[in-house]
Amino acid sequence: MPTAMIGQNPLCDGQVLIEGEVLRALGTYRQHKSSDAEAGGLLLGFRRGPHLHVTACTQPFPADKRTRTSFKRTCAGHAEIAYMRWRTSQERMDYLGEWHSHPEAKASPSGIDLREWRKLLRDRRDALFFLIVGIDKHWFGIGMQSRIEPMSMRSADNEPLQAAPSAARDENCSHR
User: Fold this and answer.
1) CA distance 44 to 23
2) What is the pLDDT of residues 15-57, one digit of tens each?
3) Cβ pair 20, 130 in contact under 8 A
4) Are strands 128-133 and 65-67 parallel, antiparallel or unpaired?
5) DSSP alpha helices (H): ranges in the chain?
6) Which among 141, 144, 89 is positioned nearest to 113, based on CA atoms?
7) Could you state, in order of their start, the residue ranges of all structural domains in the chain?
8) What pLDDT score does 89 carry?
9) Catalytic hit among 19, 21, 38, 116
10) What is the CATH number of domain 4-152?
11) What pLDDT does residue 2 have?
12) d(CA 65, CA 44)
């Protein structure tokens, strides 16, 4: 896995950068064995104009409900970690999205995934990033309002976030 990955947001002129530390942590939840249960959590980081910078994630708690083909956060620990990170970052670190694993080589969202993500997006103005950990290949996507689009990601070695090239499309990206 590269040290970091970057991709162009297909819904606006922003980019998404995922730190290698996050990718390495999520990679430990690949479901190689038939006894491996799905895992999931929150994606945390920073909103910089239309850009998202994923710098942290929560990982499953023992109280979360996990089976081979489903994951449900039931532990308040995920929200507590997000709140603690927000407070210790002078209220800058934000909830950026969700991640979970699938027991398939090439991950893709299920109908349940899409329905649950649309619920999350319904009352939000900001974009959310979604990541599904697959055995061989992950799925990356971004959502705003009711739209969810897949994203292509590439190695970000030595690539800084770039400023949005066009202010005209920025109105489609809500940001703080």
Assistant:
1) 13
2) 999 999 999 999 999 999 999 999 999 999 999 999 999 999 9
3) no
4) unpaired
5) 20-27, 77-88, 111-122, 167-170
6) 141
7) 4-152
8) 94
9) 38
10) 3.40.140.10
11) 58
12) 21
Look up the pTM and report it. Answer: 0.87
**Encoding tokens for residue 154?**
């590439």
Q: Sign of the C-alpha dihedral, residues 122, 128, 129, 134?
A: negative
Q: Give every CB contact of residue 141 below 8 A, 6+ residues apart in sequence.
A: 109, 129, 130, 131, 148, 149, 150, 151
Hey, is 151 helix, strand or coil?
coil
Q: Answer whether 56's CB lies under 8 Å from 85's CB.
A: yes
With helix as H, strand as E and coil as C, how does 73-98 read?
CCCCHHHHHHHHHHHHCCCCCEEEEE
Among 83, 131, 78, 82, residue whose Cα is nearest residue 107: 131
Known catalytic residue: 38? yes
Distance CA 9, CA 52 (A): 9
